[in-house]
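Reviewers asked in the last cycle whether our approach scales beyond single polypeptides. To address this, we selected a multi-component target totalling 406 residues and predicted its structure end to end. The input consisted of the following lines:
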Amino acid sequence: IRRKKKTVIDHPRVASYAFCFDIDGVILRGPDTIPEASKALKMLGGENKYNITVPSIFVTNGGGKPESARATDLSKRLGVNITPEQIIQGHTPMKDLVNVYSSVLVVGGVGNVCRNVAESYGFKNVYTPLDILKWNPAVTPYHDLTEEEKVAARAVDFSKISIEAILVFADSRNWAADQQIILELLLSKNGVMGTECTTYDEGPSIYFAHSDFIWATNYKLSRYGMGALQVSIAALYREHTGHELKVNRFGKPQKGTFKFANKVLAHWRQGVLDDHLKKLSIDDPNSHEADILINEQGEEIINQAKLESYNYDSDEDSSEGEFKEPLAVVGKEDKITLELPPASTVYFVGDTPESDIRFANSHDSSWHSILVKTGVYKDGTVPKYTPKYLCENVLEAVKYAIEREH
Ligand code: G3P
Ligand code: MG
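The resulting structure, written as structure tokens, was:
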């Protein structure tokens, strides 16, 4: 380890901690934006008294649209730039199934949107319940396809197709038809419509993007969600077969989604830091000369965690303490890439104890759960999973975390 003089810029800085937001009940209620959300996101973007940018991502159990559409919508509503890389929806981690199944039935959402999302993930043969109804309207006796649905549906002969997996991507718009089709396939031989298995284990696997029993909309009381559909399908299956249905679950509070979120967050934090480094120039009025630590490989050591990973042997007067936050460093090099350590703390703001608080509390002690009162959780009740902090809304959550860190 040696030391050299360099121009460093203390501002703007990127925080070593990070944020992760639930969407429904924290940022939105149905079509409405929660009023404090915009200010909260702007504070994390740098509008705070510490001039610090706090990397943040969104993990919603919702879905039914591409991540890019969700990002555009949130950007408009909140007045901040949000990109698709910051968004994890309930169905986003289903990307990992692309090479597992060659033909899937995608359930939920409006028209062809979920089919399009699945195809954008790389799924090859993606069918919808509407395709099945077009093939044979008698599958559901009391639903006639609307003109719009006829346009969305594709012509497929389902007596010749073997559906390998049912992926419930988003909330069903037609529980009766979707349940009828899902049950038929689960009880089929190899996922072929019109067939019946004898052993109850010959049908396709079923995956749900999440298991929220209720969720917060713009109605006064919470509404049934995909978890309620899951309960209903499992009950019908049990009644029909006497067996328990095996269900695969994504979304919060599942561990798979947590791992996925950590990967996305790490990537996003790295990008935020790289972006800051690119924008900085030595002409910045906030720049000044400072000591920089250089390791044996000639790399600059610019944050505490990285500093600690080296056998630091100081023979000069600078103390380790001043390297607490990743400092932006400007030098002669065109590009400085940093390998970031994990976020020191991830503040997770949610409204549903059973999915959000459980998610943040269960998998990693560096996640700090915050429960807000703008969604499913009702003030005055005892949450089933205890948050580390309880507050009115998302803005209070952000202020609390920033003050706690500084
Ligand atoms: O359908 C969406 C809902 O169940 C929950 O969304 O953003 O609260 O995880 P979110
Ligand atoms: Mg929520």
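Confidence is low (pLDDT under 50) at residues 302-337. We regard this as preliminary and will revisit it once experimental data from Aim 1 are available.
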